[in-house]
Specification:
This protein is of the alpha/beta class. The chain is built from 2 helices and 10 strands, in the order αβββββββββαβ. It has helices at about 1-30, 135-140; strands spanning about 35-50, 60-65, 75-80, 90-95, 100-105, 110, 115, 120-125, 125-130, 145. The radius of gyration is 25 Å and the shape is rod-shaped. The termini are far apart.
């Protein structure tokens, strides 16, 4: 009987220690977990649909959404850049969890990516089609911006 009581007490102690460990690990994960990815490289090329040639000087806007982390507020950031002579663009985002990209050049229709879940390297190419579009669709009033040249 004493051995059974001793085994029962030992099992209870092991269960209590295991539960305490799980509580500490859960609290650590809850307060330190962030779906934000750091140092994201966003790059791509823009081409003309009719000619398959690169589109230089195309305006690219990147919307970056950051999740609220422990003791901070979630934020949005908007980056503006342009393609080079080869139709190439590239930037680094400090951290984000969700990204949207638009491409625009006068004389072409605006094209948008879907929602992109952040990862270390994002390549988003665009193929622009000639047609009417409005710059007011590209840049919305009240957007906070960081200009990258």
């Amino acid at each position: 009987m004493a051995a059974t009581l001793k085994n029962s007490a030992l099992k209870s102690l092991i269960i209590i220690i295991l539960l305490a460990f799980l509580c500490v690990a859960g609290a650590f994960t809850f307060f330190n977990f962030s779906p934000n990815i750091k140092n994201i490289i966003v790059q791509g090329y823009v081409y003309d649909k009719a000619t398959d040639q690169p589109v230089n000087n195309c305006r690219i806007v990147i919307f970056s959404r950051k999740v609220k982390e422990y003791n901070t507020a979630g934020t949005d950031e908007t980056l503006y850049l342009k393609t080079n002579k080869d139709g190439y663009y590239r930037t680094t985002i400090d951290k984000s969890y969700l990204i949207f990209i638009r491409a625009y050049k006068p004389g072409y229709k605006i094209i948008r990516s879907g929602a992109i879940i952040a990862k270390k390297d994002i390549e988003q190419n665009f193929i622009l089609e000639k047609g009417p579009s409005s710059e007011s669709e590209f840049i919305k009033p009240g957007e906070s911006t960081v200009i990258i040249e």
